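Exercise: predict the structure of this protein bound to magnesium ion.
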Amino acid sequence: MATTMNTQQVVELITAVAERMIADKDELQKLDAELGDGDLGRTVSRGFTAIKEDIAATDDPGGDVDKFIYKQGKTFSNGAPSSFGALFGTVLMTGGKSLRGKEEISLLDIADATQAALNALMERGGAKIGDKTMLDAMHPAIAAMRKAVEDDASMGAFFRAAADAAQQGAEDTKDMQSQIGRASWQQQRSAGKMDPGARAIAMMLDAAANHTQEG
Amino acid sequence: MATTMNTQQVVELITAVAERMIADKDELQKLDAELGDGDLGRTVSRGFTAIKEDIAATDDPGGDVDKFIYKQGKTFSNGAPSSFGALFGTVLMTGGKSLRGKEEISLLDIADATQAALNALMERGGAKIGDKTMLDAMHPAIAAMRKAVEDDASMGAFFRAAADAAQQGAEDTKDMQSQIGRASWQQQRSAGKMDPGARAIAMMLDAAANHTQEG
Amino acid sequence: MKKILNDPENYVPEMLEGLLAAHPDRLKKAGDELYGIVRADAPTTGKVAIITGGGSGHLPVFLGYVGKGMLDGCAVGDVFASPSVDQVAATIRAVSGGAGVLHLIGNYGGDVLNFAAAADDVDMEDDIEVATVLVADDVASAPSDKADKRRGVAGMIYAFKIAGAVAEEMKPLADVKAAAEKALANTRSMGVALGACIVPQVGEPTFEIGDDEMEIGMGIHGEQGLERTKLKTADEIIEALLNPILEDIDLEGGEITLMLNSLGATPLEELYIMYRKLVELLAAKNITVHRPYIGRFATSMEMMGASLTIMKLDDDLKRLLDAPANSPFFDQSQYA
Amino acid sequence: MKKILNDPENYVPEMLEGLLAAHPDRLKKAGDELYGIVRADAPTTGKVAIITGGGSGHLPVFLGYVGKGMLDGCAVGDVFASPSVDQVAATIRAVSGGAGVLHLIGNYGGDVLNFAAAADDVDMEDDIEVATVLVADDVASAPSDKADKRRGVAGMIYAFKIAGAVAEEMKPLADVKAAAEKALANTRSMGVALGACIVPQVGEPTFEIGDDEMEIGMGIHGEQGLERTKLKTADEIIEALLNPILEDIDLEGGEITLMLNSLGATPLEELYIMYRKLVELLAAKNITVHRPYIGRFATSMEMMGASLTIMKLDDDLKRLLDAPANSPFFDQSQYA
Ligand SMILES: Nc1ncnc2c1ncn2[C@@H]1O[C@H](COP(=O)(O)OP(=O)(O)O)[C@@H](O)[C@H]1O
Ligand SMILES: Nc1ncnc2c1ncn2[C@@H]1O[C@H](COP(=O)(O)OP(=O)(O)O)[C@@H](O)[C@H]1O
Ligand SMILES: [Mg+2]
Ligand SMILES: [Mg+2]
Ligand SMILES: [Mg+2]
Ligand SMILES: [Mg+2]
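Solution:
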């Protein structure tokens, strides 16, 4: 099985993730209502709907893979202008930039792009690992991705490992106290609740794993 | 049995009426909620409480009967400044003025004073008989008072006849359409409901009848 | 009852004490009378004084319009109740500058009677000349052949503004009265309620209204309106407010000012949503809008709903409307 | 959901269309961008431009302070949501008068990120210099050793007013920024909620609160507060709002201005009842009040509750606070 993706495959992957996130938005809505302001479900559904619309509106939704991913970052953040919208937009934009010039992307490229995105998030948003954010799902996911690359895993196994690690990371946020964003205003009371952004990341990776394992 | 009252007896009569009106204010509240703004219970209880307080605060609550009644009119209307407060204040003030110079008041005096008050109300408030107001209780009550005087009735019988006539007048307001005051805004929808001010007049006369029949 | 208060019986006096503490540069008591609120520099010698009054619970109505370019004083009643004769008389005495006093009040029985009795008192006791103009702008409350029976709502603010501007020009009482009458002859209002308010001393809503209902034409004290229906859209609601006004006064092709007013809880956002449709409807009749007032000008505490008031303009009314005015609740500066 | 609206998805664009129809003399779109509202005469050449932005549903915040003496423009988000990068960038471009632009925004993640990204865009694409000041005045949202994490509430209005007055004096960007920072260093806020509001696109209350409950320190989007208790008296509530502020900033013996603000449904009457106690409490600490603002300045649609904001004054801040300002929502004329 292939361990690279061309633009068309990336479009399909993102579309699959988008479907899943729109379908499961209520779970995120509820988590964000507990810890934040309850709009994360709306944010992901608006952001991914904007991406789907953009893909549908473009004759050849492919083109250069780096530019495509970058553009979807802009689309996501303009379509869903909340914290997560801006930050996940940054993930895609930074990820796209880090793939500059590639025709096809490898699993290692994906791990590297996710790492670049993580760094950019920390710079943009000022959060650290352990602050109870989406970073705490991305960080273990990257480690799992690298390990999967080392182990010559299939693309499906690669995303499955990343998804599981992200989910564990999301679970672990329950024990953390929010240090940043809306949830930080809850101070001690934030303990015990799962970070909705971390769960969103885990959910996306799970959708990616399902999609690539099917294939 | 006497058919005149001195100031002291008027004080006792007004006090008895006051007690009754304060006790039964909820009935008026409900009628006014149907046809007006639901404050008539509060109005009568505030007005009569002010009168009771004024009586309690005065060493010799008697003095000249005309001045006493006039003063209680001012007290009532300042203590309960709604339509009914102003109008019933006018009743007492006009009644007091019409008794100018009297030491004792006869039943005929009371009928004449009530007639004077009715005239003043029509002038002040612009309502006519049949407009569905307190006038429609006072008007038949005056006729009954005059008949009782002709019949040499006792004071108790005099007030009982007036009270019954007033109550019949209040019942008859159900068939009228409000032409004046807040209730007139209900236009056709005012039909079928008893005028709260008319009922208040009937209730006062009933209290007066009970008091004087006891005596 | 969800309200920020202490003893409900002290709702009005405590509100007034807070008001006087907040704005001592602009407002004071009428002598010793807490229930009489007048300009800090009252009386203004030689100027006709304008007073209003009525029940509390409608801020900025009534006392919020006491200030330069508008009212000289206001007699304050308990929540939804008239001020007393003595309170009105004290207010008159505190503002009288020797040129007469105009009573500019809503057409509510208690207020009309008590202001009239107070006018008698100051006429007899102080030789103060009083003229009276009643505000009766709510088209929902009586048909046009009984227009004098209508109750007064937000339209009174236009009368305050116009008559106040004329008084500020030091015109005589007859002119100030005529200006108020002219403003009101050109003014009509119509309201809608979505949710009730609670009179503090009562503790329960003034009326019941279903979660999906509204009432067109309801009065500002919860007086029954014209029609109880399912909640309609913003576009339908503004049309239901505008149409009875257009039927009552000919505005076609003319210039108007208007007041789109929240009864309290309805947010400004929703007023602007309605306004969007309103200008469309007016444009279709070639009616142009000058200086729209959109906000909370006459409320019923936390009542949910809105009212629309329209005043037809001519050059004269327009000039008087544009004149500056200032109170702690209403500031129309030279800029606007 | 009891709201006057058409399609909930159109709540914000219809509101903006109504706004622009109502005030074409004072406001316009940022080019083609409906979600950017700027002064009708923007840009002002040579003047530092100040913009803000954030979610809708808080009128007069944010766009209500676009006007002479205050802001030049505002990027508008959906209800309780940030404006997008493109919307912010369009707003910047429409107001930039060549002297730089100050972002003066609440400390909310989405807004902070999107305004920063827009600043990058206009820096790279248009050579516009942007400085940013975050409003973080709500003492309930973080302890004083983490004051930079606090959220921004009504205190931003003082920053708009002070920085706006300095910009109007044609001072450079550094001075305007410093003025905003100084105002905010002197400003603290604290709120209480009695009842929730409904986000139109959600259709259900943002939080549940019992009929006899209140929550001290709740955020303006329903963010959980410090303490949920039984409904207290007005005197107790204002003390609960004041005390955390006094613990956070030393005001004893000084002069302040203050804003006693209704979150929407709470009537002005109740603000004055609280104010009565508030001046008493302040007087006991020898704190004097200059120019109190009492009304609806920063709301959450029909939320019931109130907030208290205090800004400590010196001669400089006082002069800038007193400077005239004018918008369709805020008019501080020469009179007052
Ligand atoms: N500064 C930050 N850095 C990284 N992640 C963040 C940051 N701020 C918020 N997040 C993530 O965003 C999620 C909330 O997103 P969202 O609901 O859009 O926020 P809001 O409604 O407060 O704008 C959080 O659960 C967290 O994972
Ligand atoms: N102009 C009037 N003339 C005679 N009676 C009147 C008049 N207006 C009102 N009333 C009487 O007053 C009663 C209502 O009194 P009240 O509740 O005090 O009025 P409101 O609350 O409207 O001021 C009516 O039921 C009617 O009997
Ligand atoms: Mg959120
Ligand atoms: Mg009544
Ligand atoms: Mg009444
Ligand atoms: Mg949000």
